[in-house]
User: Fold ABC transporter ATP-binding protein from Alteromonas arenosi.
Amino acid sequence: MLELAGIRKQFQNGDDIVVALNDVSLSIAQNEFVAIMGSSGSGKSTLMNVLGCLDTPDAGSYFLDKQNIAQLDDDTLSHIRNQKIGFIFQTFHLLPKLSAYENILLPLRYAHANEDEARQRADVLVERVGLEHRKHHKPFEMSGGQRQRVAIARALINQPSVILADEPTGNLDSKTSVEIMQLLTELHHAGQTIVMVTHEDDIAEYAQRTIMMKDGDILNDQ
Assistant:
């Protein structure tokens, strides 16, 4: 499903050039659950940005669902992000003035989807993530775990090819982290492809495959 070949990305830092990704090649199959690990500066966040079409590589090819997207323009990348990728962030990225239900609906609103179909999907997802009793609450009225459940439902609303989770338990306590990871595991068992960045060994253990990065290279993949 995800195929990267010779991906290179570098940044200017003053007079220095920092190579964030150094000819990275990687394949991720449909329904895999992959954890990407590495210390700060290892390249894991840059790799996630490339996978999520949030950044374009300087060289190399990236195929998502057999489409080469490495050099597409911003408008096309935006469309692909909305249609094929679900994002889960450490800081949730919910709109504070909207209810949980309205936050979940947002991607379909941006896609100008049929309102009845959008609400049907949202109703199913609200139940799936266990938030029926909280769907009309605003984010500030919810716990961190509940907000992350909203974010997960929002990531699923467009029925994406892949979910990209960036430190999904980073702002959660240990008990809530387990609950969120159990939910992600259930989604994986139901057929969802998940790629997750984490620095926590116990969280990475939920994945079936772990990729370790260092200095822009893949150090280990198992």
